[in-house]
Amino acid sequence: MRQYEAVIKVMEENGGYATLGFLNQNVLKIAGCEWKTKTPFASIRRIVQDERYFFKIRPGLWALNSYKNKLPFDILPPRDVPKQRQEEFNHTYFQGIIVEIGNLKKYETFVPNQDKNNAYLGKKLGEITTAAECYRFTYEHIIQRIRSVDVIWFNVRKMPTMLFEVEHSTDIKNSLSKFVELQDFYTDFRIVAAEIRKKEFEAKLSLEVFRPIHNRAKFLSYDDVSSWHARMNELATLESSLAL
Q1: Which of 14, 48, 74, 104 has its CA at 20 to 30 Å from residue 137's CA atom?
Q2: pLDDT tens for residues 195-204?
């Protein structure tokens, strides 16, 4: 079996689509395909860009051309789906990617209750998170404020390690206002958005009210997050092969 055929096989078994991270974890397991290269993950990245067989849906998410007309609604919405609905699918996708990264990093992961039933790559978002509720680590009025943050990673002591807000079109200032509630905690903050919004993020973060979190709030583009997800899955595959 050729390498591109192994990638196709994994996608077919997954419904015709897959994240690059999923491919990194599963393609090398296919029997009958040799990967003599020292950089198999780079080969996988190259293979999915072959337009004869694959097409890109979102950053980090690829599908087979032969499945283009039979992919699930939430994976590839029809063009006549309202823009707001498509944005909701994209929002959930990046929430799920961030949750999976947190899981791989051994954090407990939480998403707001109202998001748990949203579809993420054939599952419900709540099925991949590991914290059923937002831990009561401080005063209730702060908990009520941050429990709507898109993704929270908790450490083994049930304390928030990192908060993420996925911002497609809403005001970044609102997310920073949630983050600043935790200025007294050893917590980092990330705004995830299209690269074009980075300057807006920097302008909002420079406001005096956000000075307490200025050095802990960072911007991640959608491509940054998808690359992070792929790399974490590469690392998981390597650690598994070495029995670490």
Answers
A1: 104
A2: 999 999 999 9
Rounded CA separation 176/216 (Å): 11
Do 21 and 225 meet the contact criterion of CB atoms below 8 Å apart? no
Residues 9 and 30 in one domain: yes
Identify the CA nearest to 70 among candidates 120, 125, 15.
15
Please name the residue ranges forming H helices in the chain: 3-13, 20-26, 40-47, 83-104, 125-128, 140-146, 172-179, 198-205, 222-241
Question: How would you classify the pairing of strands 217-221 and 188-193?
Answer: parallel
Overall domain count for the chain: 2
Interatomic CA distance for residues 149 and 240, integer angstroms:
32
Residues of the domain holding 17: 3-71
CA 93, CA 17: separation in Å to the nearest integer? 13
Helix (H, G, I), strand (E, B) or coil at 160: strand
Q: What is the mean pLDDT of residues 186-191?
A: 98
Residues 58, 174 within the same domain? no
Q: Are strands 160-166 and 151-154 parallel, antiparallel or unpaired?
A: antiparallel
Do 101 and 214 share a domain, yes or no? Answer: yes
pLDDT, tens digit (0-9, with 9 covering 90-100), for 90-103 = 999 999 999 999 99
pLDDT above 80 for 85: yes
Task: Give DSSP secondary structure letters for 74-91.
Answer: TTS--TTS-HHHHHHHHH
Instruction: Kindly report the backbone phi and psi dihedral angles of residue 152, in degrees, each rounded to the nearest multiple of 5, phi listed first.
Output: -125, 135
Q: Under a CB-based contact definition with an 8 Å cutoff, are residues 96 and 121 in contact?
A: yes
Q: Are residues 47 and 168 in the same domain?
A: no
Q: Residue 122: which pLDDT band, with cuts at 50, 70 and 90? A: very high
